[in-house]
Design a protein that fits this description.
It contains six helices and 22 strands. The protein is α+β, with helices and mostly antiparallel strands. The longest helix has 31 residues, at 2-32. The radius of gyration is 45 Å and the shape is elongated.
Length: 426
């Protein structure tokens, strides 16, 4: 009887021990995984990732298929989160990618492909910025034709990627730049010539008119003859004179250039002279047509800061040139400037000067070309022309208020035009 009690006691002890060992496991399972009011409570340490995916498949009621390359452990602690958000967090934590098709979530380690259509920004303008935040192996393709970014990267970068795209996809700032190009020209020099006057009597005389450039002379320059016997006898009168010319001011152009922030705008008043360039390679010889731009040009690039200032890169240039035997030759005066101004503030660039020597012959046709004696019937005008280009630049940030003001001006102009047209008709 005593031995029987000992055996019973051992059995009871083993049963109790097993119960004590099993009870915590059941309790732990019940505590670690639970769903209450659509929220999941989960506390797992070093759990297999595929086991965790099975748990979320049951919680969400959605099929989840994981590829063979999905392996590893995960530690999860959720205290009341929707199953969808919990699944997303687990996948991002493991650097896994997924997509949904026909109600099934497919999970793998391969990068996902996302397409983002932009509303305002140009895809190629933000392509470099987007690529700089993505991990190695990611790709960013910009298609300006469809205004779309195609991005292939890991899913854990999607939140910051989408946030950055939203911050960059804003309407670009526009700048309207009023410019005035004023050329100040001064002609320094004069003329040199002979006025010849032959007088025999009051009825017989001959003289050249205006070749010496006397202030009292009017009318055309040339030879004036009275009577036929003009070269028999008489006296010769000659004198030299010089004329100074007044300084002139000329508004070359006053255009308004509108461009986007950080985008270059150019203006050229002049000509483009073509010339050929020969490119020789091992297999072929190719000729390319290039152009030499001469005249007055202006290149500017605005950059609008957050505090409303405008940083301007301005490149004015005046030049002339020729192309001889497909070799361009250019004389130029140019300068590069970078300034910081307020919205609507004007700045001036000066000192762009050039000089040109002009020589013109005036005289009596045929007689002025006779060697030696032709100088008696010819006047040579030598002019040294010096000009300076002044560039006045006034940038304006195009805001909604500015556009409203422009609309009112256009509306007023249209109304005035209609009133004038009505008066002319009636």
């Amino acid at each position: 009887m005593k031995k029987f009690g000992i055996v019973i006691g051992l059995v009871l002890g083993i049963w109790c021990l097993g119960f004590l060992q099993a009870a915590p496991a059941a309790k732990t399972e019940a505590t670690n995984i639970s769903i209450t009011k659509g929220k999941i409570f989960l506390n797992l340490k070093d759990a297999d990732i595929k086991t965790v995916l099975q748990i979320f498949a049951k919680a969400t009621g959605v099929n989840i298929v994981a590829s063979d390359d999905v392996t590893g452990k995960v530690t999860v602690t959720f205290s009341g989160i929707t199953p969808e958000d919990g699944l997303t967090a687990v996948l991002r934590a493991r650097g896994l990618d997924w997509f949904t098709e026909a109600g099934t979530i497919y999970v793998s380690t391969k990068k996902i492909l996302r397409t983002y259509y932009l509303a305002n920004a140009k895809p190629s303008d933000i392509q470099t910025t987007i690529a700089s935040i993505l991990p190695a192996g990611s790709t960013v393709t910009a298609d300006d034709s469809y205004n779309v970014l195609v991005i292939q990267t890991t899913s854990d970068y999607l939140p910051r990627l989408e946030k950055l795209i939203n911050e960059l996809d804003i309407p670009p700032v526009q700048v309207m730049v009023e410019t005035k190009l004023i050329e100040i020209t001064g002609n320094y020099g004069g003329n040199l010539g002979l006025d010849v006057n032959y007088a025999k009597n009051s009825n017989n005389n001959a003289q050249t008119v205006g070749l010496a450039g006397r202030k009292t002379n009017t009318g055309a320059q040339g030879l004036y003859a009275h009577a036929l016997s003009i070269f028999s006898t008489g006296s010769l009168e000659a004198f030299l004179s010089a004329l100074a010319y007044n300084t002139k001011l000329n508004v070359v152009a006053s255009p308004r250039l509108t461009t986007l922030n950080n985008k270059e705008a150019t203006l050229l008043i002049g000509a483009k002279l073509g010339y050929r360039t020969t490119i020789v390679s091992e297999t072929s010889t190719t000729q390319v047509i290039n152009f030499l731009s001469v005249g007055t040009s202006l290149t500017l690039t605005p950059n609008v800061t957050k505090n409303g200032y405008i940083r301007m890169k301005v490149y004015p240039k005046i030049s002339d040139g020729t192309v001889v035997n497909d070799i361009p030759q250019e004389n130029t005066t140019e300068t590069k400037n970078e300034v910081m101004v307020k919205d609507g503030q004007t700045f001036v660039i000066g000192g762009l000067t050039k000089e040109k020597d002009n020589q013109t012959d005036y005289g009596v046709p045929i007689l002025m070309d006779i060697p030696f004696i032709g100088a008696l019937f010819r006047k040579t005008v030598s002019i040294k022309e010096k000009s300076e280009l002044l560039v006045f630049v006034t940038p304006h940030i195009i805001t909604a208020e500015y556009l409203e003001t422009m609309d009112k001006s256009i509306e007023q102009f249209s109304k005035t035009s209609e009133d004038i047209k009505a008066r002319l008709i009636h």
